[in-house]
Amino acid sequence: MGASTAIASPRQRGGSRTGKGASPGRPRRARDDRRAAWLFLAPALAGFALFYAYPTARGVYYSLTDYSLLNDPHFTGTENYRQLIGDDQFWNALKVTGYYVVLNIGSQMILALGLATLMHRLTRSVALRAMLLVPWLVPNVTVGLLWMWMLDANLGLVNHLLGAFGVGPTGFLTSPTWAMPTVAGINAWAYTGYTALLLYAGMLQIPRHLYESASLDGAGEWRMFTRITLPLLRPVLALVLVVSLIGSFQIFDTIAVTTKGGPVGATRVIYFYIYEQAFTYFHMGYASAVAVILALLLGVLTAVQMRLLRASRSDLA
Amino acid sequence: MRILHRRAAAALLCLAATSTFVSCGSSDEGSGGTTLDYWLWDDKQLPAYQECADAFHKANPDITVKITQTAWAQYWQNLTTQLTSGDAPDVWTNQSSYYPQFATSNQLLDLQPLIERDKVDLSAYQDGLADVWAKDGKRYGLPKDWDTMALVYNTTMLEKQGLKKAELDKLTWNPSDGGTLERAIARSTLDTKGRNGLDPDFDRKHIKVYGFLPEWADGSQGQNGWGDLAAANGFRYLDKNPWGTHYKYDDPKLAETIAWFKHLIDKGYAPRFDKQSTVANSELLSAGKGAIMVTGSWTISTFTDPKVKEKLAFAPLPVGPAGRKSAINGLADSVWAGTKHQEQSWKWVKYLGSADCQNRVAAHAVVFPALKSATRKALAAHEAKGHDVGVFTDVTAAKETFPLPVTEHGTEINPLVQDAVQSVVLGQATPQKALKDANDKVNALFK
């Protein structure tokens, strides 16, 4: 993408400058630049060290202890990790999180792509774009509570409407089969509009004349979508995918509000499991170990995604 | 992000300046008075305890009590966070399954020496309430209230089915045929065509009103249903209480009880677990979607609220093979071991447990205060409002109560047993197997 070239070019220029090294004034100016740069970076770096690096290091340390929040931590080596391997609740948490990510990302991406294409090809209405953003602007806890009431098996609007068609009540959030698809659906509802807008913005970068000449050549909408829109959208698509994938792994609030990990662990996702271990059972050490594993997993996933991102540089460039 | 930075700057400023002039976030004021932080979770009880706090301040003008009410769902997490940061409330409302972890991590002040010094009479409290808070000669709380369990039912619906109050006051139960309780539940279940559960044409797949609304998110104790009936069937949770170290969830008497609940679902008398409402059972009962459920005395005001359209009344729990058994649970006030105002905090706790404060609480008719004398006053206050809630006090008089288990690892045991019970009513596992597996996991925590 454009961003990577923008970062790369000044460094190359600087490199060639010091490489020449002819003028005596220049190296000093370069050092001055560096000092100023460090000065400007200092607040951000201090913040990063204090709020990111230090807690991360501490978290890794806690994962090697029996820390309980209320007692002092004692070093226990890799005990937490050994326990983790035999913990079926941990594996279940990974499994249901994976299931959620597939359901959520799958439905959200397809819907968002559809919406964005419709907007791009049919209308440029600002009002419509604003409306699409509304669900995304509602706080997650409110979203969870709203849907919990609407989907209730006894008093909910959705089951009432389904009942009119002779469909018996469904425990959308209380049945182990339905709970996770329902949670994924709720979040897809909340985020599809936002994702669609991102993709729509990407589509606006595609030159119009491509579509014009394609339609002159007799190409239909579907052909234009698969041959023009999709290939040229690839970099944006990849970026959106990375961001939503990581966000999707962090699913917590909707579950904390609606199912609390139930029924029988069907929605006890990894973040909820960490939360329970840390703040309900006070196993801060163990919770940290799970968090470290999750961080590693997300790191690997992101690395793979970033490679994909770089590999698919826009065909427009 | 910007807020974080600003906060960091403020924190750094405080660090740098505390030694000189700036005071950061301390609750004390300079005028010689003390402000005590007091926490509770029940919003319905807040007015009663605010009245106590005002009266206490009047009698002790140098001590002000600041009450913070936090909903149950966040209460313990907030408390733990505050304890970790070393800024906990001086005094807080404590619960029997949550306090052991605070006691073992030395967060609670031992009240025993103070009780002896000031000669507080523990026998004035309802029997057994004070014992829950003692361990190895130390005492971590002074009783403030108690609660027992009973049935609550829709009088209009049950009368329509010919069920009279006299019958409901003498219900029996056993796990094999469900006794007269199951017959009452069957009679009050109605399908969409208006036939009750005893009708040969009863359609168990299309239900309008469920005869019984069981509680399945009930932790490891089943206080709101299965625990009381299992105890009536002769089940004991563990080897000794409080401070037992071996649980007995593999007892066949518990398995039979859970199997009976599953049978209610299969018959169509209770909602299927996977089709149940996410709304609380009390809401469903109040909305006329169910006829009978088990409830605790702390919820009385939910059902006697004039806004509830359905006519509801209370009945005692049924008599089982081992008699009638109601869980009894008491709350207490505890003092934080790290408080800077130990003497003032104890003074407040002593006042909370005294007749003066407990009589004020009684007059609000929300909970039953721990003092026997104040309990009678609360009952009278309920009667004055026209509410018959004697079933909750009768069980204590008749000694038909059992204390809920108090052990280490309480919060860890909750989901293990709850998941096992839920997997049975979902039909995923047999009660014997699920409860045996859960029991093994529970007892492994004590090794």
Describe, in plain words, how this protein is organized in 3D.
The complex is a heterodimer of chains A (317) and B (447). With 317 residues, chain A is mainly α. Chain A has helices spanning 2-20, 25-62, 79-85, 88-122, 126-137, 140-150, 157-164, 176-204, 208-216, 221-249, 253-258, 270-280, 284-311. Chain A has a single domain (87-311), classed as MetI-like fold. Helix content of chain A is 76%, strand content 0%. The longest helix of chain A has 38 residues, at 25-62. Mean pLDDT of chain A is 84; it is low at 1-25. By secondary structure, chain B is an alpha/beta fold. Chain B contains 18 helices and 14 strands. Chain B has helices at 2-17, 46-59, 72-84, 99-104, 112-117, 155-160, 165-168, 179-188, 226-232, 252-267, 281-286, 300-304, 342-352, 355-363, 372-384, 390-397, 410-425, 431-444, and strands at 34-40, 63-69, 91-94, 134-135, 138-139, 142-147, 149-154, 190-191, 207-212, 290-296, 312-315, 326-335, 368-369, 401-403. In chain B, a hairpin with a 2-residue loop joins strand 4 and strand 5. Mean pLDDT of chain B is 89; it is low at 1-30. Classes of the chains: A mainly alpha (317), B alpha/beta (447). Chain A binds chain B through residues 43, 47, 50-51, 68-71, 148-149, 151-155, 168-171, 173-178, 258, 262-265, 276, 279-282, and chain B through 4-5, 8, 76-77, 80-81, 83-84, 101-102, 105, 107, 205-206, 217, 271-279, 283-284, 287, 289, 411-412, 415, 419, 422-423, 426, 428. Chain A: Keywords: Cell membrane, Membrane, Transmembrane, Transmembrane helix, Transport. Chain A: This is Binding-protein-dependent transport protein.
